[in-house]
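Dock flavin-adenine dinucleotide; give full complex structure.
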Amino acid sequence: MAKKLLIIGGGGAGLSAGIYGQMNGYDTEIFEMHTIPGGVCTAWKRGDYIFDGCIHWLVGSKPGNDFHTIWKELGAIKEKKIYDHEQFVQLHIGGKTVHFYTDIDRFEKHLLELAPEDEREIQRLAKSIRKLTRLEMAVLKPTALFTVAEWVRYGIKMFPFLGEMMRLLSTPMTDFARRFKNPTLRTAFSTIFPIDGFALGFFAITMAWMHNKTAGVPEGGSLPFALNLKKRYESLGGTIHLGKKVAGITVENGVAVGIELSDGTTHRGDIVISAADGHSTLFNLLEGKYLTKKLKRYYADPILFPATLQISLGIRRDLRADPHTVARVLDQPIIIGGLPQPAVTVQNYSFDPSFAPAGKSVIVCYLFTDYDHWEKLYTADRPAYEKEKVKAADDLIALLERWYPGIGGEVEVRDVATPMTYVRYTANWRGAWEGWAPTVKTFKWKIPTELPGLRNFHMIGQWTTPGGGLPPAAMQGRSLIQILCARDGKPFTTTEA
Ligand SMILES: Cc1cc2nc3c(=O)[nH]c(=O)nc-3n(C[C@H](O)[C@H](O)[C@H](O)COP(=O)(O)OP(=O)(O)OC[C@H]3O[C@@H](n4cnc5c(N)ncnc54)[C@H](O)[C@@H]3O)c2cc1C
């Protein structure tokens, strides 16, 4: 009889594990607390507008990249048009504009024109990004299953990149920014990823993928992407239970044997996989009983992806001629959502007609915010919480008037997602929608996916890979099934959708 896999969480990681599990003869069931699949990879409809909550770039959007193979197997972007952006972001600082062109030659030329005095640093950055365009990481086979010969081949392939990668991943973006003599570039590089300790390597590799045109946005955005995964899973015979929250993992004699749902029902299986939030898995579902020293340290002194407000506006204005992402550094930080905002980034979704009716547009702003502020309001004073959301949108719209005069009168629909929205719908701890932040410290973390004293239990998903992202989530689901197949002594097989 086929082994039964119980999967907690129907986000990218859980659906991927389910799909590859079904392809390989396991009997899988996914339990998802929300009424739709996808986890943080989602979108919501308000009036005639769709507000997307996730994909800005999808690594593997183009054939020739191993992640593309995974998307094909998962049926995620089948027959979808891919939008590749000309610029990663267009950044306005004082009277200057820095274009982060995704074409590296163009980006380098532009920076050299802006800041000839920084020639050495600019050329060094461009050289690093160019080098990373040739990097091919192990994606289709987990290194845990490598034979000696495969390790040798992989070592030879990776050797030319190791020094560069270590240097880039150990350099905080803010330190890198300080190397520039030109004040505009110094501000630009410290602004684009304003996360404490954000590693230069994550920026460089993203630029390399964009240069290769393998980090585009699939037509229709995040929700169709997630629904495609569900469709693929069900077409392979998998069962997803929506609106079913897991309240506990049943352990007998050190073996995970099942799960208990919040409605009191229980399910038994051979393997339990948690693709849910790391904190709730370890501290609630497993009651903090199976923590390693490292896990205790990571969760006691967390380096989380910052909590944000997503303010989405449906506006009666055609913004097709505008760039898709424009950031502006403010002369004076302005307080929105309880925190001073030194810059404001406007994402314009007009590149894809799926999001707004003809002649209208969706714009979205993400603003870092204070998680505790929103949690306190949400739990202690719901009317004040709702009022604070309205105020945040009002404050943002007032600010946007500076660059889009008259916009206030053109807003037809508005929506504010707070860190509590992420907690409510996806349980991501403290609203950290990508889990751990991608920093110079977290890239060195080794987060265990199996726990001491607990057999037949695995963790996958963004809480086991710092920096998050759909590709690692999907890859982890695939890798885990490869490992289970290897342990069960059977070949791992895949099909394309
Ligand atoms: C605004 C935003 C922008 C992003 N941009 C990009 C991008 O451009 N490119 C990219 O690759 N990635 C991006 N990401 C990140 C990417 O979406 C995530 O890293 C990835 O989707 C995480 O997948 P996951 O399955 O690990 O986690 P999640 O999506 O969090 O899935 C976990 C699932 O578990 C469920 N769950 C939790 N607890 C329980 C329980 N007790 N019982 C049952 N179910 C439970 C949750 O409801 C959720 O569905 C972005 C994310 C956001 C929010």
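Observed: Residues 8-14, 31-34, 39-41, 53-58, 245-246, 275-277, 280, 426-428, 433-434, 461-462, 468-471, 473 surround flavin-adenine dinucleotide (CB under 6 Å).
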